[in-house]
User: Fold these one by one.
Assistant:
Number 1:
Amino acid sequence: MLKTQEYCLNFGPQHPATHGVFQVILTLDGEKIVKAEPVCGYLHRGIEKLAEARTYTQVIPYTDRMDYLAAMLQNLGYVQAVEKLMGIEVPERAEYLRIISGELSRLTSHVLGTGVYALDIGGFTGFLLCFREREKMMDLLEELTGSRMTLSYARIGGVADDAPEGWLEKVDRLMDEMPGYIEEYNGLITGNEIFQARTKFVGELTPETAVNYSLSGPVLRASGVNYDLRKNMPYGIYDRFDFEVPLGTNGDCFDRFYCRVREMEQSVRIIKQAIEQIKEVDGPVMGKVPKVLKPPKGEVYHEIESSKGIIGYYVASDGSNKPYRVHVRRPSFVNLGYLDEMVRGVLIADLVAILGSIDIVLGEVDC
Amino acid sequence: MSDWAGVFIFFTVALVFGAGGIVTAFLIQPRRSNPVKLEEYECGVPTIGETWVQFRTSYFLYALLFVIFDVETIFLYPWAVRFNNMQFFTFIEMIIFIFILIVGLWYAWKEGALEWK
Amino acid sequence: MEVNKEKSGIETVTNEIWAPEYFGTNPDYHNMYPVKRVISAGPLEKILNLARAHSIWPLGFGLACCAIEALMGANGPRYDLSRFGYEVMRGTVRQADVMVVAGTITKKSAPFVLRLWEQMAEPKWCIAVGSCAISGGPFVDSYYVIPGANKVVPVDVYVPGCPPRPDAVLEGFLMLKDKILQKRKVVTG
Amino acid sequence: MKERVKAPVEEIRQKFPYVEVDEQQTVIVPADKLLELMQGLKNEFALDFLTNETAVDYPEESKFELIYNLNSICHGYTMMVKTSVDRDNPEIPSVFPIWGGANWQEREIYDLMGIVFTGHPNLKRILLDDKFDGHPLRKDFQWESVRE
């Protein structure tokens, strides 16, 4: 066999398919990848070090800027960790508002994930179609929290303020239309033969390696592992809603993508049930929380199910009003740990499909 | 002589159109050359390892097949333009020409030149 | 196009942020490589600026959350960037006209932001989107963040916000158009 | 919140005598017995999902505290395991052979905190560039602020 020469290629920081500044140094033999070495850290802003110099409430805006696509779920993780540390009771209405805005945030994140994945595979119209719905959802979130993306809506002990007049009816109306929109996505993107040819049986992941490499979120569930924190370890009031957890069969890029689309349908169901139940619940939106939060000395680790996977907050406090140490277990960062072995022997075009299906967000990878 | 003038005019207009764009761009463009601009662009970071590498044959085979069938379509154009006032014989002749190329395509397909090794 | 870079107030950059291996130790790089032309006529530039201003090709290069708003949101169906003709998002640096720095520049990404800027073809501009690109934003006292894109590249238009709304980014593009057409845009208030 | 399945901390205490358990059900193990305990936890107690691994710097007690959070997917309980390592030569065996997920998390701890993990496949800096000196997340890390 004639010897072929390998060469190095930068799948570099500035690249349309890397969802931000993320570099993969590829050793290539023709089009086949021999070795892939991911290099991240181009967006490392040292949030964990900054959090040590901020009070407990001032850390909330930093959690928005990590996974800036589902900001409410990041706030929720941090806020529930501190509440667990201080043992604060959250009023009923605040719990419901957290669920509704959290699931809306998950919907915007999954819609963007669907649209950008269609863009990665080459379908620009899929991107435009998904962004049409995303703008509607961001209008609702902006009406509730005042900001489109970096919401900072959760507070330790409750939420910032109550839903404005008529907001819940607007959300309800949009949720009635969502199944129709999701049918459109399926028709345009999921049913597309070229899309299926590019993503089916590409980058397959066995359940054992997925669990061993502690991948989480749609990446784990696409391999058939039934592990969703909202079901297995319910936090907040998730046990009052019934919804299924979509699972994939052979863990390839198509299953990861399709799990996200079906999770959107489940989020719609949760929001509709939450809106039904919040009608007869009213009361304060903020629990009894001292002006200056001084949690007792101790540590807590609390994790919730964010749109990219399990987001976990480890908060250690030394009794002062500033956290002693905040560590964030970031799903996109851990999901990338297995990228090197996963793309060995794969063509470059499939690397784009695999990287898009893991759905990383660089603010979260580099923290 | 006159029809040759037509060809000559067509040729010079094409030349002027092409070269003219390049020359005016050279004259009026703002130019700032510095060492980094002349380096190769690879996603914003310097390249790793040596980049003068012999490429694999499958790239060359794909290019070869493309050129063959591209040239074939060029031959089809004049025939298609003068299609309606031609006798039946030229139609048969062109069908034979196309058939020969289809045999070539079938052979390349069978030999696996299209699959990516 | 005589956008006078010297007056745009780029202060000398501390050596440690600047990437020394690219430009030796001379931090003020403007007069090292002046812009040269074979023919430079005033009215000719005005005509060329008309074409340049109405079809700026942005470089698809998003760093952080501002990229979602500036590049994706502005290109989305509602805040349509292609109404102004700026929607051709180029992947390579060689074909781009404006570098939209949308996000935080960290010490690890400063050399490649600078390299991208130097490899862009003249005439080129830079829009700094978001408070991280203007002055470091919420991460200004981090050990790894460069406080502002103007420490690395000369910036023409600043779009404040964290992240700015997509229509603020459109306003930034239109201000850049006015700057290219030499129309002095007096910003009141 | 609904009462969760409790982690079988008592059986662990009987099975591994060198382990203490504090009031929050976190298992504290000396550094040299770490791998043996972790292997036992994964095999007998089905704690097959390492969600989180992080380190905290306690300069006054001159030690680094390493925190491992383990989940069990089939039984549905979680557990926190803590070890501590001396601050002057922070050297601890890597748990990468047991859970593959520790690969990048340990590289991040090495990068930001400076704890060396023996037995790690490629222990290099992951977030900061290689010319960066010092480990930022240590309490005594100084850097000049760039605020004008």
Note: Chains B and D do not touch (no CB pair under 8 Å).
Number 2:
Amino acid sequence: MTSRTGIVLGIVLLALLPVVIRDEYFLHVMVMIEINVVMAVSLWLLGITGLISFGQAGFMFIGAMTTALLMKLGGWSFWVSLPLSAIMAAVVSAPVGRLSLRVKGVYFFLITLAFGEVVRGVFAYFEHPFGGWYGIRDIPPPSPAAIFTGMGKMPFYYLGLMLMLVTCAVIYRISRSWFGSVLWNIRESDVLAGSIGVDVPGFKLVAFIGSAFFSGLAGSFYATYIGYISPLVFTFEYSTNTLIFVVVGGFANIGGPIVGAVLLTLVSEGFRSIGKYQSMAFGLILVASVLLMPTGLIGAAQGWRERSQRRRRAVVPAADRQG
Amino acid sequence: MALLEVTGLTRRFGGLVAVNDVSLTVETGEIHGLIGPNGAGKTTLFNVISGSLPASGGRVMFDGADVTGLPIHKLASRGMVRTFQHSQLFLNFSVYRNVLAGMHIHASSGFWAGLIDSRSTRQRNAALAERAHELVRFVGLGGLEDAVAGSLPHGHKRILQVAIGLGPQPKLLLMDEPVAGMNHADVDRMMQLVRTLPTARGTTVVLVEHNMKAVMNTCDRISVLQFGRKIAAGLPEEVAADQAVIDAYLGVFDDDVA
Amino acid sequence: MPIPTARDTTRSISANIVSAGLPRRQLLGVSAVAVAALISQKPAWAADKTVVLGCSIPLSGPAAPTGITTQRTVEHALDLINQKGIQIGPDRYTIVAQFYDNKYVPAEAVTVVEKMLADGVKFIFSSGSGNSVPVVGKTTAAKVLQMSGASGKDHLTGPQFPYSFRVQPTNETAYALYPWLRSNYPDLKRVAHMNPSDEAGYTESEDRRMIATKNGFTNVANEYFKRGATDFYPVATRLTGVNAELIDFGGTIGRDQALAAKALRELGYKGKIMLGYSDAKSFVDIAGADAAEGTILFDTLAAPQNPAEKEFNDWWLGKYGPPMPSFAYTMYDWPFMLAEAMRKAQSVDPVAVSVALRELIFQGLFGEAKFGMKSVYGLESSITRDIPIAVIKGGVPVPLALVPWPKDV
Amino acid sequence: MTLALQILVTGLVTGLIYMMIALGVTLLFGIMRVVNFVHGELVMLAAFVVFAVNVQLGLPFWIALPAAMVMASVVAVGCQKLLFKPLNYEILNCFIVGIGASFAIKSASWAIFGPEPLAIPATIPGVVTFAGAFVAKQRLLAAGICIALTVALFLFLHFTRPGKAMRAVEQDHEAAILMGIVPENVYVIAFVISAALAAVGGAILGTLFGVDPEMGSDPLLKSFIIVQIGGMGSIAGTVLAGLFIGITDSITGTLFGGELAFIIDFAILMAILVVRPRGLFGYDV
């Protein structure tokens, strides 16, 4: 299978990258990309259920906070804190999902937005143990210290790469499993899905919890990598950025959020040297990309390929659009 | 024992009583028609019975159990499935995948098993695929498996909807205006399909329909609603002769035969 | 897998069986291009007589005014410095600044600093404590000199950060202010504090309450508000209820100051208001002359007092037009101090420059400036200088005093 | 008692201003199911126009205001034709395009207008006192304008031809087309009205709170919350929710301090949505 070979080749290339390019800034950007990809893919899991969340940074924050508290106050190892943080985000997401999934469409957009802000507000309000607006600083790197403090960013790059690959693999499996196909069905028509026996609220909730789980994972990694978290980090803008990755990349398959996160992070980085015009350029690119490719990069690529195939076959399906 | 027994069902919207104390019995194996002028409360009654809307009062017994207020997906897994007035399809998916989706309740091998792609899942899925193909052929869409649902002609879309509804192997299929907006040939085709359901699939049918000719020719028994109340019930010819029904429709019969 | 064959259509999930390879390939191609772009962006080192000063400042978002003002000020200061150049041995050095938008977001700030470190930048300026604290560990480890225009107290200044300097007195102004208040306004006893709800606000509030108490004041209220929140009536209602004689706006900056003062006056507050880091003109414009009357402005230069201030003021008005933000004056000295330290050290090595910077006594806009506060932070890393104070009279700021830096701090 | 009155007065006035801006959001949503993220930027640009005409050119406020309304309408219709129409008013893409445009406009505004907050002088300075509660005259004027415009909007929607056409499109898109209404024309009217409301909001905010490129962001977020609590597309709901949020803001802000008020606002939003998923007056989306 060529696609499998392609993926293996890609992973090998990614694994060799730090050996070839020994530039700490570049590695740092790669680590940020890894975090962004995990976030975008986790949001995509909601997307294939037809849900859009503006509060994904809230779950990331919960994961990051859990790791920060466990490692800094509890002295726990990162390797224990990481899964616990993801689980904590998932645990919080269950009741939140139960309540917020009662609303649909735009209302869900905004209730998730509100949730993200409440998380920020709560962590900011309670100085103990959350550090208030100071946030928590000096979060230790993972053990063994010899590797994670002595070798620059390379170990973090590999750790992030591993998390990213695992997340992508698991979410890809989910999206291609029967469970995933039901999520796609719900996205297409939740009324019809319900009528044939799908527990629509239940499936949505599981997708919501799963998505929160991986966001928590990203948050945990963020905390140990940057070493500093505060309510200034996990903002509505952060959630929005994640959503932008997915929309610009496209929902059609998991390549969408991945390509979106990678490209936009790089684009934004590429414009960094223009200082005050960076945000402007980013905004304009966003506008252009959605206008030119409303189904995202992946959608545009698929459309292009289909058109060329159709031209080759010269078969035009007689689509009857009545009713 | 009756398959579906509705007793004193009522549904209010604010001050409006859309369904008022309706009782209804559907026997196993019959095709039961539900007719009435526009606004008689047929679709609301459907929505309440099928769990799409909560009831304001009354009781729904299905297959010997009280199912009042159960959510729609639970009813589906108990064997009561509904179709919709407007074509509800997974428009961007193929015909085959639409039908396959309908078999959801027989596919639930569990979340983890579904992820891991174990041998038993694969076997079960192979069996499902076989059944889906069989169902596509049964409703007469054979050869169109790969067509995108959204690109089908209207008549095919409605047929496909029936196929999806048959996926859970329901004991009772509630069909909301299955021939609305169809041409003659498609109506005949649909009604032929409906007539085979009790014998070929073991599925009892309740259908709401405006097309009188179709209802009279297809249904074993008919109930008539007006202003949210049941005003008559019985064999097609009895109902057609019922003075209350004639008054209710008053000339509508002729116009309505499409 | 029960999911149908690869022949399934458009948005169906199976379509990616065929396409899965494509995004990956695209992705790799794109990243290769981007990598090339990123690497090629290394600053064009103009021969060997240039020192790069990397500035991580907010140029978009709500904190942008600080960043834009800083950029303009630094550009001008460097122009002046570079006219003469910095003579080190036989070489004449000039300082070239690079400005990056940190959007006032810590993660962005970390990325900006990573980029500068990778580019080999040895002198960094960072604006905002939330952006400076997360990077100080990295710059220290890289032996890069970091100057921060930020509060952040011992998180930025201390023996563990030998190359980190704070170039703007923030919460520390209170050390000079409260003794001055005690002797000049002996009737004032009850102080209320108002600060933005972020870490700068918390730092300010903590220190100001502590220092006020030390100087015999009573703290009667401590309020926080969300920065950029438009309506101050609720907070002002709370503050008018505590019978304060003085309200210290602490870390409140920009428009918030004017809106809060306006709301307080409209709700009948009669006591004194004290605020800093402000541009007096826009404060009066927004608050209105009546509400602004009598406000004490700390670390605020009402009008240029000496030739250097005059020159800067004229340059600004000529280039950008009025108003000239007073904040710009407080950002003016440090580039000169950096240049002077390089000259003194006869080196552009950040470690050597740090040592020289610590010993430097500089004649700045407000007189003698030097890095000090060892008694508080354990190392001479936080700038100390006289604090100019102004008061609003008849709708215009009038110079009131130049409060000397207390000897014991 | 005085405190209660003060809280009420403060809340009503700010509530009316929020409502004003939220009405524009809900109008567009009701009619074409579009959440216009550029709305906040219209508020901001309008305030800059008022500043330019009123302060820099020295013309009266009452000339500056219509100028701002015209300018905001032009930008809004520009956004509609260039951004939203090509996307067939599809909600998510419109949302994202709006965010992108808003980024770009804000960022450009910083570069153009510079760092200093600007102010539009009050049209009527001074403070009114009654029963121990204080309120600035300018705020009362603002409240008056908001009430007048809301009434005008109501009359427009119910008693004029274009207004009726708008309501027809809102209630039943297909039926409206059958009645010979061209939706696209109705959309243009909706964008113009919505922008005009935003412009008035901007002028009011400018006189009360000063002018800067970020000034539209907070009111936009607030109007999202209001619109949602009131029910998307419901004018009556927006009016009530605007006042409701204004007063809750005032109560929580005054009694518990600004920080907690922020959390409480969002908690209220979540609670209301859990109890009434479509908001107070909303319909199915």
Note: The mean pLDDT of chain D is 88.
